[in-house]
């Protein structure tokens, strides 16, 4: 395992300590969340009773393969704790998410969650968000309108591709990765993106994380509200 993966695993091990018996647990998406799901599966094998709420079809398949019982997102009224990854975070706990394309379900899950814990390797901490382009999930019919609106906000949008075709999300939409340069006002930009018709969700997560647990070497550093 390389150093980044070790940091992800250390952060995941620390994060699962916050899970309690009978919790409803949001299960994140991506290579960092993968470590948390593995740790949760181990706890379940050892007698912990939880129900998981997946943030993507990939995560649902992984969780089921590891023996974690799931609840469908549309039936859940509240989630006790979620452990998810991020593409970037700052010390104010603002995040960019959606590198894996699961941002819409991740945001719904985060919004339903009492204790949203983000786990990350040390490469994810930034002074200012924006080096990682902001993923925007777009209803395909609205693509040109959304690109124009992003340009009005000084954002340069590019349709995400995979295997020479448009990347399609679990919700049958497309992703536009938007470059705004370094973001000075994450709250303002998030609000502006929320107002664009045809945008289902964007990857700026403001005021949603309760803590970030970052692996650094063999230690963890916790950033909390
Ligand atoms: C998926 C996400 C992921 O949490 C984010 O992309 C980080 O992924 P990784 O842990 O693989 O670096 O938001 O939509």
UniProtKB/TrEMBL annotation:
Pfam families on file: Rib_5-P_isom_A (PF06026)
Description of how the protein assembles with itself and partners: Homodimer.
Active site: 106
Sequence similarity: Belongs to the ribose 5-phosphate isomerase family.
Swiss-Prot/TrEMBL GO biological process terms: D-ribose metabolic process; pentose-phosphate shunt, non-oxidative branch
Annotated pathway: Carbohydrate degradation; pentose phosphate pathway; D-ribose 5-phosphate from D-ribulose 5-phosphate (non-oxidative stage): step 1/1
Taxonomic lineage: Bacteria, Pseudomonadati, Bacteroidota, Sphingobacteriia, Sphingobacteriales
Name of the protein in question: Ribose-5-phosphate isomerase A
InterPro entries named among the record's database cross-references: NagB/RpiA_transferase-like, Ribose5P_isomerase_typA_subgr, Ribose5P_isomerase_type_A
Function: Catalyzes the reversible conversion of ribose-5-phosphate to ribulose 5-phosphate.
Gene3D superfamilies tied to this protein: 3.30.70.260, 3.40.50.1360
EC number: 5.3.1.6
